Amino acid sequence: MKKQFLTIILFGSFCTLLAQTSFNNEVAKSKLEVYVIPKLGFSKITETENVPLNGYSNGYDALIAISMKKKFRFSTGISYFEINGNRNLAGGSASLKNLYLQIPLNINCDFPLSKNIPENQMVFLSIGIGGYANDFINQQIETISETTSLNNLGWNFGFKSQFGLKFLVTKKMNLGIGFENQIDLSQVKSDNIKYKTVSSSVYFSVGYRLNRN
pTM, whole model, 2 decimals? Predict the structure, then answer.
């Protein structure tokens, strides 16, 4: 219940912020957008009583964003994140899979790469930073003889940064590609074991503007 309550509070706070700022002239000129962002990369997991594990990571973001002054973009939503790797366990080999559910809060700035008039600018340098609340929802360890699964290991918080390119395809649709790094600032604590991850990935984004104008 605590996890669900925290999620409701976070989304409620964001929705309240949108409602309050909707009366502001800047937001009246803003653009409401949705983004789907798949990612592929590498991660490093550190946990007590084990050597660090390097693995492959993949995931995706489903975000809703507000763009202001054609440069700044604030977004939040849901992120799913998965890390796969192998480690030695009791003299044998084991396959490990960690699953995470994140609630991000991001700010991005888009800088035009051409000197054309604003209406003709099609390519932008996109730089972003943000934070996230991270729910370690499942860890699965598989050996030849058995599979162990642990659920709801706990919450922690982290920081992320992005660097990439954004391309306007139409007035309503844009595509993007770039790099993202994220690092846990706090640890997940479960059964006297502490977990922390660092990840680097390549992202591909598809954005669509919902406003009619």
Answer: 0.80
